[in-house]
Structure formats: C-alpha cells, structure tokens
C-alpha cells in the first residue's frame, strides 16, 4: 500500500508540476529515440542523408505528413521483349504493398501493349501504356531508360506529378513500401554490395568512360533498379546521365554496368538526399543476413538465357 500511495502522489505532483510538459517532452523524445535505434546498420550518411531501414521510421507519423500534401507518384517500368511476363506479378504486388493510399500513375514502356495484363487497380491509381521499339541487345534496352525517363518527364509529368520512381520490372513487392521512401533525390543500396569494401564496387574503372570513378572514391554502390525523387530532380539526373551516355556512345565505349555505372557516377557528385536500404531492393536468390528485418521489394529469379534477347 505504501508503494501504491507513493506512485499516486508522484502522479499528482507530476500532473500539477509546472515542469510536467518538459518531462512529457523528454519522455516522447526518449520514445522516438528508442524507436529509431538501429545500431547494427548505418542510418545516416556523412552528408546527413537518412538511410531508410526497418526500425528507423514511424509509418503513421510519416503518413500524417504526406496525406496532407495530396501527392501523385509516377512510376515507370520497362517491359520489352520477354520481360512483359514480369508485369503481372509486379503490378499485382505493387497494388498490395506500394504507396497504398496515395495517387499512383504507372507508365509502362513496352513494345507489346497487347501483352500488358489487366490488373485491377485501387482507387486513385491509373496506368498508361507507352509503345516503344525493343532492341536485340539487352544492354541497349537498359541504356535507353534514361532518355525515355527524361522525355516522359519533359512532355507529360512536369506540373502533373510530384514524385517519380523508375523501377525494374523483373521484381515483386513483398512488404510495405510507402512515403518513407520519398525525398528530393533517392537512391537504393545494391543488395549485392552493401557490405563490400569500396574499392571492390563494380564502378566503371576506365578513365575513357564518362562513368569513370577512380579507386578510393565513392560512397555506396547504388542499384540501377530503383531511382526516385521529385520530378525535377529526377529529370536533371536522367538528362545528365543521358548526355554522358551519348558521349560514351560517340567514343564507342559502354560502361561496365551501362546506365547503372553512370547513375553511380552522378550520385558521387550529386549526393542522394535519401538512401533506401537493401530492404527496398533485394534478390530472391540471396541469403538473408540478420540486419535485413524485412524484404519489401526483390528481384525475382530469372533465367537470363531465356528472358534476354542476347547473352
Ligand atoms: C538489381 C539492379 O540494380 N539491377 C540492375 C542490373 O541488372 P539486372 O539483371 O537487374 O538487369 P535487367 O535484365 O533486369 O534489366 C533491367 C531492366 O531493363 C528492362 N529490360 C531488360 C531486358 C529486356 O530484354 N527487356 C527489358 O524490358 C526491364 O525493365 C528490366 O527490369 O544492371 C542493369 C544494368 O544495365 C540495370 O542497371 C539493372 O537495374
Ligand atoms: Mn532487373
């Protein structure tokens, strides 16, 4: 009874105390810090960009911020040649997990509009199919994504949408992907290299290429399968990479990992303002390490020889 009385009196003192709001504020701060604690992974870069991991953000709180802004998120995917087979799973899983509750406009670039599956879309979600020619080299297909992205933003998206994501189609969503991913210019850490020493990153190492990154330089190895951000920032990225790709083409050099190499070069000098952890780009074939608490988006298993037009 003595202890109960003591707690009761302390409670009364706290409620009436002039410092009660200070205590409450400190309690909330402690709560937020505990919620945000991930000591096992990097959660902020040296240039102060957050790295988004499970356990570092509060979904309800972030939703409350973005819901007031009435945003539209354009989402582009390329499905050329045999890659049209990936569209169904991509779209169906996106409708379950991707930007739920927000206005999303998918733009599907394909050479076979008739092969785009009919997927029931949620409220405020729409899809536009854009017919483009395919190529008999897969490298050409990935290389041209920057140019298409640049032109799409110029002709249709400026003043129409707020954010854009360009995503690989040979993928599936397995978990929540929401507005915590939004930022000015957003990159994803490639799942194959998140614990690789910098000098082993597969950057382009030939100085003749515009994508050249010397040894000793670089922050992360970013995946080409996810590029995002505000439309005007993504436009600048796509345009710059397209121009660099043009220079390489004129010099008959193709970077080690095509547009992904140019993307990594761009991000070296134009740092991403938000970085997504490999939870946002995993590979179905990959062994899951203890720091990966959830897989949100992942590359599906594919037989390269069967789906690509050339080896
Ligand atoms: C995980 C990751 O970051 N993946 C990147 C990686 O290999 P990937 O093996 O992921 O490349 P990929 O074969 O998936 O090609 C990238 C994308 O191009 C499209 N596509 C490709 C071939 C084709 O015949 N039809 C077609 O539509 C499709 O949208 C596909 O998702 O390196 C590529 C370099 O060029 C891209 O940067 C990919 O984004
Ligand atoms: Mn892919």
Q: How is this fold's topology laid out?
A:
Elements: H1 2-16, H2 20-35, E1 51-52, H3 59-67, E2 72-79, H4 87-97, E3 103-110, E4 125-131, H5 138-143, H6 145-157, E5 163-167, E6 171-173, E7 185-189, E8 222-230, H7 231-250, H8 258-269, E9 274-276, E10 282-283, E11 297-299, H9 304-307
Parallel strand pairs: 1-9, 2-3, 2-5, 3-4, 7-9, 10-11
Antiparallel strand pairs: 5-8, 6-11, 7-8
Helix pairs in contact: 6-7, 7-8
Bound molecules: uridine-diphosphate-N-acetylgalactosamine and manganese (II) ion.
Uridine-diphosphate-N-acetylgalactosamine is lined by residues 77-81, 83, 138, 141-142, 168-170, 190, 223-225, 257-260, 281, 299, 308-309.
Oligomer: single chain
Q: What structural category characterises the helix and strand content?
A: alpha/beta
Bound molecules: uridine-diphosphate-N-acetylgalactosamine, manganese (II) ion
Report the biggest beta sheet as strand number plus sense, adding barrel if it closes.
Answer: 8 strands, mixed
Task: Outline the structure in words.
The protein has helices at 2-16, 20-35, 59-67, 87-97, 138-143, 145-157, 231-250, 258-269, 304-307, and strands at 51-52, 72-79, 103-110, 125-131, 163-167, 171-173, 185-189, 222-230, 274-276, 282-283, 297-299. Helix 4 links the parallel strand 2 and strand 3 (103-110). The strands form two sheets. An eight-stranded mixed sheet has the order 1-9-7-8-5-2-3-4. The chain contains nine helices and eleven strands. It starts with a helix and ends with a helix. Helix content is 34%, strand content 18%. The model has no long low-confidence stretch (mean pLDDT 94). It is α/β, with parallel strands linked by helices.
């Amino acid at each position: 009874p003595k202890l109960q009385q003591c707690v009761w009196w302390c409670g009364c003192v706290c409620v009436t105390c002039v410092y009660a709001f200070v205590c409450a504020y400190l309690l909330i701060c402690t709560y937020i810090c505990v919620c945000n604690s991930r000591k096992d992974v990097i959660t902020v870069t040296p240039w102060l960009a957050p790295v988004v991991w499970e356990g570092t953000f509060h979904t309800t709180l972030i939703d409350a911020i973005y819901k007031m802004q009435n945003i539209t998120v354009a989402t582009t995917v390329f499905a050329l040649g045999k890659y049209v087979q990936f569209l169904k799973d991509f779209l169906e899983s996106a409708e379950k997990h991707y930007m739920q509750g927000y206005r999303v406009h998918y733009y599907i670039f394909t050479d076979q509009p008739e092969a785009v599956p009919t997927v029931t879309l949620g409220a405020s979600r729409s899809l536009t199919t854009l017919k483009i020619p395919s190529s008999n080299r897969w490298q050409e297909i990935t290389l041209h994504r920057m140019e298409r992205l640049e032109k799409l933003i110029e002709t249709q998206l400026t003043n129409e949408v707020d954010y854009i994501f360009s995503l690989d189609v040979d993928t599936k969503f397995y978990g929540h992907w929401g507005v915590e991913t939004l930022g000015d210019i957003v990159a994803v850490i490639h799942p194959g290299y998140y614990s690789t020493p910098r000098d082993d990153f597969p950057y382009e190492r030939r100085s003749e290429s515009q994508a050249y990154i010397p040894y000793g330089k670089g922050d992360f190895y970013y995946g080409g399968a996810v590029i995002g951000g505000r439309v005007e920032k993504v436009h600048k990225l796509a345009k710059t990479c397209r121009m660099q790709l043009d220079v390489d083409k004129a010099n008959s050099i193709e970077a080690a990992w095509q547009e992904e190499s140019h993307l990594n070069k761009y991000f070296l000098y134009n740092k991403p303002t938000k970085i997504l952890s490999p939870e946002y780009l995993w590979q179905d074939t990959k062994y899951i390490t203890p720091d990966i608490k959830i897989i949100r988006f992942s590359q599906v298993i594919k037989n390269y020889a069967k789906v690509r037009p050339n080896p």
